From TrEMBL:
Classification lineage: Eukaryota, Metazoa, Chordata, Craniata, Vertebrata
GO cellular component annotations of the record: endoplasmic reticulum membrane
Main location: endoplasmic reticulum
Protein name per Swiss-Prot or TrEMBL: Alpha-1,3-glucosyltransferase
Signal peptide: 1-18
Location within or outside the cell: Endoplasmic reticulum membrane
An annotated GO BP: dolichol-linked oligosaccharide biosynthetic process
Family the entry assigns: Belongs to the ALG6/ALG8 glucosyltransferase family.
Length: 526
C-alpha cells in the first residue's frame, strides 16, 4: 500500500502496474506452451522464406496460415528479427522445431507487443467517469480498471503460457473504443478496420461498430426525446468512413486480389468444414445442447429406445472430436448457428439504434455481440470469451449492475480456460493467479459500490462457490477413480457445462439490463 501511495504522489502508479505485470510475464517464459507456439513459428517460416503468392497455399505443416493478411505481414516483420536469434526456426521444413533461442524470441515478442495493450488501457482509463472517486488510490475507478485489464488472468495464461498474440490485438480494440469515447470517430473506425485485417474473429463485434458510427457520427443530432433527427444525416461523414474502411481493406487484400487469390485466402479464413465445437467444448449454448444429446442418448440406451449399433461411435466415446454427430437431437449446421447468432444479436443492435445511450450503450452492445457470437457461433474457441470479458471490464467500474454481471462472467469465463493448461507444473500457477485476480476483482468492486446493494444474490454466490468443488473433483479426485479410463472426457464435459450455465446467465442478465434501461435523450450526440 505504501508503494502505491508513493506512486500516486509522483503520478507513476500506472507505470508501476504495467512494469509489475511485465516482470510476471518474464517469469512465465519457461512454462508450458501449446501447439500455437509451433503455429506461429511456422507462420514466421512461411512469410520469411516464401513469396507472398505462396503464403496461403503452403501446406507442409498442418498449421497453415489462416489469419488475415495484416497478421501475415506482422509475422513477416517479426521473422526479420527472428533470424538474429535462430535462423533454423525460419525453415518451413523444420516441423515442430524448437530451441532455447526460439523460445526466448517468441515469448519476448509477445511481451514486447503488449506495449500497445498497455497504451490502450491508459487511454481507456482517461474515459472513465470520475464521479466515484475514493480517498485511497486503490479505491479509484481508474486504478481498479487498470488492474482488471493489465493483470487480466485470461490474457496472462492465454498469451504468456498457452501462447498467442491476443494482447496487442485487444490493444487495437481498446484503443478504438477509447477513441469513440473521446468522440474521435474516424480514428476509432480506422483502428477497428485495421484490427479486422489482423484477426477476423473481431467480425463478431462489427455490427456494434457499424450501427454506432452510423447513429452517432453520420447523424449529427437527435431530437429532445432522444430519437433520431433524420435531416441531420451527413453524406460527407458516411463517405469518409467508407473511404477509411476501403483503403484499409485495399491495403490488406489488394495484393491477393491482384494475384487472383482472394477465394483461397477466404477459404483459409473461414474453414466451415470444421465441426460445430472445438476439441474442448467452449462453454456456450452448444455445449449444453451436446450434453443434453448425450444424456438423452444414455437414457435411450437404458430404456432400449435406441439401437447401440446405430449410435455414432465418436458421439458416445470421447466427446472431444471436431466432427460431432448428434444422436437424438438434430445435428447443427453452420447456417443454423449463423441464424441463431443473428437472432441473438439483433435486439442489442435495435437498442443501440432506438435507445441511444452514448458510448456506454455502444460498449454494452459490443459486449452483447461478442457474447451472442460466443454463445451460438460455429466452432467457437474457449479463448473467445475474452472478447466479452475485456470490454465488460470498462463497464464494471461505472455501475453496480454491470459490476455484478462482470464478476459472474469473468470468474466463470476465466475458469473455463483452465483445460488449456493441463500439465502438472502449471496447475498451482493457474489456480494461484486466478484466485488472486478473482479475489481482487470482487473485493475492489464491492468496495467501489459499497453504498449500493450487494453485487451477488444467494444463488449467484452459491454458483460461483461451486467452482471450487468442481476443480477439486476434476483435478484431484477424478484422476484416481476408475472412471478415468472409461470416461476420460468427463472432467472437460463437466467444466464446459458448468461454465456454460454461468456464462449463459451473465449473457441473459446483461440483455435484460440493456432492454429495460431507458434511452438517454439529448439534443446533441454523446
Amino acid at each position: 500500500m505504501a508503494a502505491f501511495t508513493i506512486a500516486a504522489g509522483t503520478g507513476n502508479w500506472f507505470s508501476a502496474l504495467a512494469l509489475g505485470v511485465t516482470l510476471l510475464k518474464c517469469l512465465l517464459i519457461p512454462t508450458y506452451h501449446s501447439t500455437d507456439f509451433e503455429v506461429h513459428r511456422n507462420w514466421l517460416a512461411i512469410t520469411h522464406s516464401l513469396p507472398i503468392s505462396q503464403w496461403y497455399y503452403e501446406a507442409t505443416s498442418e498449421w497453415t496460415l489462416d489469419y488475415p493478411p495484416f497478421f501475415a505481414w506482422f509475422e513477416y516483420i517479426l521473422s526479420h528479427v527472428a533470424k538474429y536469434f535462430d535462423q533454423e526456426m525460419l525453415n518451413v521444413r523444420n516441423l515442430n522445431y524448437s530451441s532455447s533461442r526460439t523460445l526466448l524470441f517468441q515469448r519476448f515478442s509477445v511481451i514486447f507487443m503488449d506495449v500497445l495493450f498497455v497504451y490502450a488501457v491508459h487511454e481507456c482509463c482517461k474515459c472513465i467517469d470520475g464521479k466515484k472517486v475514493g480517498k485511497e488510490l486503490t479505491e479509484k475507478p481508474k486504478f481498479i480498471l487498470s488492474v482488471l485489464l493489465l493483470w487480466n488472468f485470461g490474457l496472462l495464461i492465454v498469451d504468456h503460457i498457452h501462447f498467442q498474440y491476443n494482447g496487442f490485438l485487444f490493444g487495437l480494440m481498446l484503443l478504438s473504443i477509447a477513441r469513440l469515447f473521446q468522440k474521435r470517430h474516424m480514428e476509432g473506425a480506422f483502428f477497428f478496420a485495421v484490427l479486422l485485417h489482423f484477426k477476423h474473429i473481431y467480425l463478431y463485434v462489427a455490427p456494434a461498430y457499424g450501427v454506432y458510427l452510423l447513429r452517432s457520427y453520420c447523424f449529427t443530432a437527435n431530437k429532445p426525446d432522444g430519437s433520431i433527427r433524420w435531416n441531420s444525416f451527413s453524406f460527407v461523414r458516411v463517405i469518409s468512413l467508407g473511404l477509411v474502411v476501403f483503403l484499409v481493406s485495399a491495403l490488406s487484400l489488394g495484393p491477393f486480389l491482384a494475384l487472383n487469390q482472394l477465394p483461397q485466402v477466404f477459404s483459409r479464413l473461414f474453414p466451415f468444414k470444421r465441426g460445430l465445437c472445438h476439441a474442448y467444448w467452449a462453454p456456450n449454448f452448444w455445449a449444453l445442447y451436446n450434453a443434453l444429446d448425450k444424456v438423452l442418448s444414455v437414457i435411450g440406451l437404458k430404456l432400449k429406445f435406441l439401437d447401440p449399433n446405430n449410435i455414432p461411435k465418436a458421439s458416445m466415446t470421447s466427446g472431444l472430436v471436431q466432427q460431432f454427430q448428434h444422436t437424438v437431437l438434430p445435428s447443427v449446421t453452420p447456417l443454423t448457428t449463423l441464424i441463431c447468432t443473428l437472432i441473438a444479436i439483433l435486439p442489442s443492435i435495435f437498442c443501440l439504434w432506438f435507445k441511444p445511450q452514448g458510448p456506454r450503450g455502444f460498449l454494452r452492445c459490443l459486449t452483447l455481440c461478442a457474447l451472442s457470437s460466443f454463445m451460438f457461433g460455429w466452432h467457437v474457441h474457449e479463448k473467445a470469451i475474452l472478447l466479452a470479458i475485456l470490454p465488460m471490464s470498462l463497464l464494471s467500474v461505472q455501475k453496480a449492475g454491470d459490476a455484478s454481471i462482470f464478476l459472474i462472467l469473468t470468474t466463470t469465463g476465466h475458469y473455463s480456460l483452465f483445460p488449456l493448461l493441463f500439465t502438472a507444473p502449471e496447475l498451482p500457477i493457474k489456480i494461484l493467479l486466478m484466485l488472486l485476480f478473482t479475489i481482487y476483482s470482487i473485493s475492489s468492486l464491492k468496495t467501489l459500490f459499497r453504498k449500493e446493494k450487494p453485487l451477488f444474490n444467494w444463488m449467484e454466490t452459491f454458483y460461483l462457490l461451486g467452482l471450487g468443488p468442481l476443480e477439486v473433483c476434476c483435478e484431484f479426485v477424478f484422476p484416481f477413480t476408475s472412471w478415468k479410463v472409461k470416461y476420460p472426457f468427463l472432467p472437460l464435459l463437466l467444466t464446459s457445462v458448468y461454465c456454460a450455465v454461468g456464462i449463459t446467465y451473465a449473457w441473459f442478465k446483461l440483455y435484460v439490463s440493456v432492454l429495460i434501461d431507458p434511452p438517454v435523450g439529448k439534443t446533441k450526440k454523446q
